[in-house]
Amino acid sequence: MTKARTRALLLTPAGLWYAALLLLPLAVVLIFSFGERSAIGGYAPGFTFEQYANLPSRLAAFQNTLTLAPLGTLASLLIAYPLAYFLAVKVSPQWKTTLLVLVIVPFWTSILIRSYAWIFLLGGRGLPALLESFGLPEIRMINTPFAVLVGIVYGYLPLMVFPIYVALEKLDKRLLEASADLGTPPWRSFLQITLPLSMPGVLTGSMLVFILLMGEFLIPALLGGGKVFFVGNALVDLFLQSRNWAFGSAVAVALVVIMLICVGLYRRALGRFASGPDDVSLM
Predict the structure, then answer these.
(1) pTM
(2) Where does the record place the ABC transmembrane type-1 domain (predicted)?
(3) Beta-carbon count within 10 A of 33 CB
């Protein structure tokens, strides 16, 4: 048996699984997006671009998603990078496992429970009441974009930490030692050595968090209080409440197209850093 045939046989089960669970549902959604809403709700066969023409009616959901998803990704990155750097470079080996487990601990609890905890913390009897006790004016936190952003960062931070940690863990410490021996300031060594070599982890973590945030609906529903809609919330409304499957499919297709564009940009950026920087200058 040739290598090509052996490879094909080994890949066939995974390929069938991929086609059945990803490609086939996407094909169904694409077909539905050209249909119409039946009189009793659901889907009626047809071929029209009316659903795509109605996409601007959900512009607010797309704007919220395309604003808060990148902001949430950036905020997660700004918090996760120092934490991952500390775990990979500064912590002694005997403490690493313990601290990594502590990073994972929030995932042991349902995101629903964690979101309800933030409802209390950001509600009138939580942080606003604490700030008011110090003489500060009353600040509304819950049911705002800020609350959604806090929930996003809290919920997705571990997914950002681990890819960056893995990239930093593989960093050759001898490069930093050589840089120090040559008299390079620590901040310059970080910018010229550590950061470029950790970029694959940064890009992977950012894309992982961003893609998941694009489909998020629970955190905006709970912490946004129905005032901060994501595309995920619009899809829940269209498929389960108004039962406009055709329009919901068109919204889903538009979201998939946006994600594919982002993944394409990610792969292009990752290709530039796949083999590390071309020239690491220590002077």
Answers:
(1) 0.86
(2) 62-266
(3) 22
